[in-house]
Design brief:
Shape: elongated
Largest sheet: 8 strands, antiparallel
Mean pLDDT: 91
Distance between the termini: 54 Å
Length: 335
């Protein structure tokens, strides 16, 4: 398996083409590695110690709200002496720099150091205990940075080959919202307050729901209960199952999680959980962002869902969830 990973990295390097320039003006190759993969550069003694254990346990923790266990990231490890040009163009790199000569401990984040679009995270520490302490305090930021960099890559690639007619539909429906969709996505349904856009193959569905709701600005409007109730009512009315009387809904087996976040000046409530079909056996993961329109008159909800019964779902969900982060308002609408 390890030999296969190294072969993939080598093949990707050989196929890489010049992408852009870094700050010094040097032409950079495209990154190598698979989506969701992280390369860790560490001496074996550090990888088997406390610092390595924190990195390994955190980066390979179970990806939340997937039907089967899948790690957050797939790891490839290499020692500093073997960190050659072949590995330097990997998409996500975490480097453990632990030596007595480190005078300023800390974590440094670099973009496009050896390739593009690349993220390089360096942990500088004078001892392993110091490195472990840094990782304990900053692991959430490390994971969030890797995750957002992966999303940004998806959105950037999508912009190159997007379905522009869908962008126009979303802009009109949301009254000034912009969103990109990869080639192959199509409009499945549109009503006064609901859009359904999806990409469907024989065994995989990746879909987006966009809905509008009158805003009340009551404190209860973005509670978990309110988000789920609105979602269930909307899906029952608009997303039928394969058989008469069946419809998509929120799974009651495991309660969804809710967190409140912000990205690109949009503050939103994130609902993450499982969907299933009332009266049938279909199901899968979903994640939604709910936020106010610039005028404050409406709540906008954008949801990504996956149906892939024959396959692991981490990659499919990460791909389509990334599209949620590509949403932004017209500047005129925000003013």
């Amino acid at each position: 398996m390890r030999k296969l990973q190294l072969f993939i990295l080598l093949a990707a390097m050989m196929l890489a083409a010049p992408a852009c320039k870094n700050r010094t003006g040097k032409i950079l190759p495209n990154v190598s590695g698979k989506a969701g993969e992280v390369l860790v550069v560490s001496e074996k003694i550090w990888w088997s110690g406390a610092a390595g254990m924190i990195l390994r346990d955190s980066l390979t923790a179970d990806c939340p709200y997937l039907p089967q266990k899948e790690p957050l990231y797939s790891l490839v490890t290499v020692t500093p002496s073997n960190f050659t040009q072949m590995f330097q163009i990997h998409r996500n790199i975490v480097m453990l720099n632990i030596n007595a000569g480190v005078n300023v401990p800390g974590i440094v984040y670099n973009m496009n150091k050896w390739a593009s679009p690349q993220l390089v995270i360096t942990v500088n520490a004078s001892t392993q205990d110091e490195a472990a302490d840094l990782l304990e305090k900053n692991m959430h930021t490390i994971i969030s940075t890797i995750e957002q960099t992966e999303r940004d890559r998806v959105v950037s690639n999508t912009r190159k080959y997007q379905e522009r007619k869908l962008a126009e539909v979303v802009h009109d429906f949301t009254r000034g919202g912009n969103m990109v969709f990869p080639s192959g996505y199509s409009l499945k349904k549109r009503t006064e307050d609901f859009l359904w856009i999806s990409y469907e193959t024989t065994y995989v569905q990746q879909g987006i729901f966009i809905s509008r709701h009158p805003a009340t600005h009551k404190k209860s409007e973005l509670t978990p209960e309110a988000l789920v109730d609105r979602r269930n009512a909307l899906l029952k009315a608009n997303v039928p199952g394969m058989f008469e009387g069946t419809y998509m809904t929120t799974s009651r087996v495991i309660a969804p999680s809710v967190k409140y976040a912000a990205y690109k000046d949009i503050r939103f409530a994130e609902l993450r959980g499982f969907w299933d079909v009332e009266g049938d056996f279909m199901g899968g993961p979903f994640v939604s962002h709910t936020f106010y329109s610039p005028s404050g008159d409406e709540l906008i909800c954008i949801e990504a869902y996956v149906y892939a019964p024959k396959y692991d779902k981490r990659l499919y969900l990460r791909q389509i969830e990334s599209l949620l982060y590509g949403f932004e308002w017209d500047k005129a609408a925000e003013e």
